[in-house]
């Protein structure tokens, strides 16, 4: 089946893409670029760099703008998916939703209206097992945003490895954060992985942090041979 | 052993991660023994070895299971607990003489439990995640456990531990699968 993956460049959309590539054929990556930094539906930091990942994995990217106002985002997403049907012949949509009923139900409704299959291959996955899977399969994931107490500055720009997963596990047990960040606590960007033909090298980035809100904004990056 | 039956349109589909693995994951976290099998690959021996059976849900666009009800005739004489979730409930309805009817619903909604059962407990309201294009009509000899006659949320065979729920328990209601495992 030809599929389009809703794609932000964060770990969940990249890993959902990997699973889709194993069972089906991914014909495009659909990136909705929101002008609203507090978008209800779409991962925003560094989303402009998702184009490098698309190039690295060798799948065409369809980008679609949205002003990011709550319910208008949904009609923009629907238009983006319809454009992917026209341009790439997709028969279904893949998302990286894990727990968010808000996100999942809305995409399900859009797919139903457009008569498309809808797949959520990370749905209800155990979040710590999932993070360990990313590491064991060779995904290089960095944290590009933290937005919750008690995530301190050391997490901003950090690479997700087994030690960091251990720290997130301890914070989950003590403060009930979602270790994979699906509650909006953490945002990520993927630099390399088994589906990457080239890896991404960050040449310049700016780090900001204040009151448990921090961002690692990529200023310049390029693809390099692996 | 719990036999977790995959009702998706083909073995090892992309939907398995979404509709089968979360159910198997609940059994795994509870420390229960379980096996996952696609409905087209069920064997008499596999069914015989199971203590209880769960029929899982499918993607909204997936309707193959409803065209292959013939593959589920073994359920009619089963003498062990069985739980049908969404598509699985539709299969149970069809096997026992009820109907599968168009009744689309997506998202969280309230569910009124109207009859006490070992699985869902006493009458009260809960919230559940719905993802279905089709609902069911009650088969003869089945009790309405939750919902109303025109919108059946849960049913049970009046005599046997044959349960169906139209909502997805892996979202906010994992306790239902845990309870079923302990029946």
From TrEMBL, chain A:
Domain Diphthamide synthase as annotated: residue spans: 5-221
UniProt entry keywords in alphabetical sequence: Ligase
EC numbers on record: 6.3.1.14
Molecular function in Gene Ontology: diphthine-ammonia ligase activity
Protein name: Diphthine--ammonia ligase
UniProt source species: Candidatus Methanocrinis alkalitolerans
Phylogenetic lineage: Archaea, Methanobacteriati, Methanobacteriota, Stenosarchaea group, Methanomicrobia
């Amino acid at each position: 089946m030809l599929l389009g993956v809703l794609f932000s460049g964060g770990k969940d959309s990249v890993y959902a893409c990997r699973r889709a590539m194993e069972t089906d054929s991914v014909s495009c990556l659909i990136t909705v670029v929101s002008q609203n930094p507090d978008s209800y539906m779409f991962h925003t930091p560094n989303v402009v760099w998702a184009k490098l990942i698309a190039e690295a994995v060798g799948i065409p990217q369809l980008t679609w703008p949205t002003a990011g106002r709550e319910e208008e985002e949904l009609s923009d997403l629907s238009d983006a998916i319809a454009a992917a049907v026209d341009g790439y012949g997709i028969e279904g949509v893949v998302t990286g939703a894990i727990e968010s009923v808000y996100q999942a139900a809305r995409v399900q409704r859009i797919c139903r209206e457009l008569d498309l299959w809808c797949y959520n291959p990370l749905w209800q996955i155990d979040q710590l097992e999932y993070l360990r899977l990313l590491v064991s399969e060779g995904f290089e994931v960095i944290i590009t945003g933290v937005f919750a107490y008690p995530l301190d500055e050391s997490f901003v720009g950090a690479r997700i490895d087994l030690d960091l997963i251990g720290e997130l596990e301890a914070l989950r047990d003590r403060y009930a954060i979602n270790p994979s960040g699906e509650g909006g606590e953490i945002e990520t960007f993927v630099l390399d992985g088994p589906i990457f033909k080239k890896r991404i090298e960050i040449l310049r980035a700016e780090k900001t942090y204040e009151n448990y809100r921090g961002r690692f904004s990529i200023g310049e990056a390029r693809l390099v041979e692996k | 052993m719990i036999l977790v039956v995959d009702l998706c349109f083909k073995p090892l589909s992309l939907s398995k991660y979404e509709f089968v693995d979360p159910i198997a994951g609940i059994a795994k976290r509870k420390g229960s023994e379980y096996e996952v099998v696609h409905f087209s690959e069920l064997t008499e021996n596999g069914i015989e070895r199971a203590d209880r059976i769960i029929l899982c849900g499918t993607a909204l666009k997936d309707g193959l299971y409803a065209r292959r009800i013939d593959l589920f005739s073994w359920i009619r004489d089963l003498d062990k607990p069985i739980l049908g979730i969404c598509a699985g409930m539709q299969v149970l309805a069809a096997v026992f003489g009820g109907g599968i009817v168009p009744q689309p619903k997506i998202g969280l909604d309230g569910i009124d439990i109207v009859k006490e059962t070992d699985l869902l407990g006493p009458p009260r309201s809960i919230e559940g995640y719905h993802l279905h294009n089709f609902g069911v009509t009650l088969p003869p000899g089945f009790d309405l456990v939750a919902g109303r006659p025109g919108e059946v949320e849960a049913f049970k065979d009046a005599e046997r531990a044959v349960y169906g729920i139209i909502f997805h328990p892996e979202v906010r209601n994992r306790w239902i699968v845990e309870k079923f495992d302990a029946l």
